[in-house]
């Protein structure tokens, strides 16, 4: 029996929430495993791929997956591993769409790929311990888009900036992940809010972005309608080795589906 489901999946360091018709979920989990294998082979062949904060020459990519990571990170001026969560989400959702999925998403710990035929809300949160948050109302979409975040305060990912949260929306989650990292890196003081989008508006595939620093907000490009929400940390996609009640994630989660979720 098929129906819309939201399913949790973990492999290695990856913890994802996969939503869509139940018949498509196995395609996503298979794609996550394949994508991780490609990235791990690249790292085994050249550990510099794992550690560099600078773009990595795509000529040395050993697969289509790592080539796409290199291209997105080059556009944003960051290292390829800044795209890893978005890459896994993007490839998983692409597999679902190829299998016939018309409405669904993959949330890889707060970096999200979405393909929507009706509006869905993505929550943005940036204040540890607070119940206050807001959300983007997104969709329907024309194909897959990415909504990804980076933070100098939340989560376990490395950031060179101080932003409470930086959110990038792009035509793929691979690019959105790279751009979110770069946006967050660019914001260290209040004055940076007035210039933090100047480097991104010309990038092919960039849709829009939002940065919060000490409660002040800057936006660039096309940002979806914003609505107020109440944050529930127990709903954040977190690895089972982390405490969901205290883990604050990267700053994003899906909170409204527009679908009846079976389980």
Structural summary, described in words:
The protein is of the alpha+beta class and 263 residues long. It has one domain: T-fold, CATH 3.10.520.10. The protein contains five helices and twelve strands. The strands form two sheets. The protein has an eight-stranded antiparallel β-sheet. Strands 11-6-5-12 form a four-stranded antiparallel β-sheet, with no helix packed on it.
Q: Any idea how many domains?
A: 1
- In helices, the fraction of residues equals 25-40%
The SSE order reads: EEHHHHEEEEEEHEEEE
Distance between the termini: 13 Å
What's the overall geometry? globular
Q: Please tell me how large the radius of gyration is.
A: 17 Å
Percent of sequence in beta strands? 25-35%
Low-confidence stretches: 243-249, 256-263
What is the level-2 CATH architecture name?
Answer: Roll
């Amino acid at each position: 029996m098929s129906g819309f489901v939201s399913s949790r999946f973990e492999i290695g360091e990856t913890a994802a929430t996969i939503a869509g018709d139940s018949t498509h979920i196995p395609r996503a989990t298979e794609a996550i495993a394949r994508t991780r294998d490609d990235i791990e082979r690249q790292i085994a062949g050249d550990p510099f791929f794992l550690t560099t904060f600078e773009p990595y020459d795509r000529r040395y990519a050993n697969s289509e997956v790592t080539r796409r990571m290199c291209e997105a990170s080059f556009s944003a001026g960051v290292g390829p591993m800044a795209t890893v969560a978005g890459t896994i989400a993007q490839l998983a959702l692409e597999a679902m769409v190829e299998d016939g999925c018309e409405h669904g998403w993959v949330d890889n710990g707060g970096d999200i790929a979405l393909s929507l035929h009706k509006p869905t809300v993505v929550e943005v949160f940036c204040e540890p311990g607070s119940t206050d948050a807001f959300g983007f109302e997104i969709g329907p979409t024309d194909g897959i888009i990415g909504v990804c975040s980076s933070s100098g305060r939340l989560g376990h990912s490395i950031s060179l900036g101080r932003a409470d949260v930086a959110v990038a929306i792009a035509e793929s989650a691979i690019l959105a992940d790279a751009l979110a990292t770069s946006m967050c890196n660019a914001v260290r003081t209040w004055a940076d809010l007035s210039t933090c989008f100047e480097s991104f508006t010309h990038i092919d595939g960039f849709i829009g972005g939002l940065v919060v620093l000490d409660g002040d907000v800057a936006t660039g490009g096309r940002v979806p309608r914003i609505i107020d929400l109440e944050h529930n940390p127990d709903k954040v996609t977190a690895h089972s080795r982390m405490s969901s009640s205290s883990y604050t994630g990267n700053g994003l989660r899906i909170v409204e589906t527009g679908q009846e979720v079976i389980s």
